[in-house]
Amino acid sequence: QVHLVESGGGLVQAGGSLRLSCAHSGRRFSTTTMGWFRQAPGKEREFVAAISWILDNTVYADSVKGRFTISRDNPKNTLYLQMNDLKVDDTAVYLCNAGADNWGQGTQVTVSS
Prior knowledge:
Layout: E1 4-7, E2 10-13, E3 18-24, E4 34-39, E5 46-51, E6 58-60, E7 68-73, E8 78-83, E9 92-97, E10 107-112
Parallel strand pairs: 2-10
Antiparallel strand pairs: 1-3, 3-8, 4-5, 4-9, 5-6, 7-8, 9-10
C-alpha cells in the first residue's frame, strides 16, 4: 500500500498562489501516473490535474487550465500542484492520487474574497 502525504494548503486571498506537495512513500513513484483531485463541502470529488509517468504528459480540468500546473520530481518521490490566480471556487480539500484506491488524507485550501 502506498502512503501519500499532502502539504502546502492554507488560507489565501483571491488572486493569490499556493503550491501543494504530495510525498509518495513507495518505490514505484517514477512509473506511476499521479493526479490531484479536490472536494468542496457538499460536493462530489472532482478531478483537477494528472501527470503521466511517460514523458510527463499532463491533463487539466477546464476550470483550472491556465492557472494550475502539475509537476513531479521523481528523485524526491514528490508530486506538486502550483496554483496561481486562485478563486473562491477553488476552496476545497485537495487530495493526491496514485491510481486505484491510493489516496492521501488531503490538504485544505481556502480562498477568501
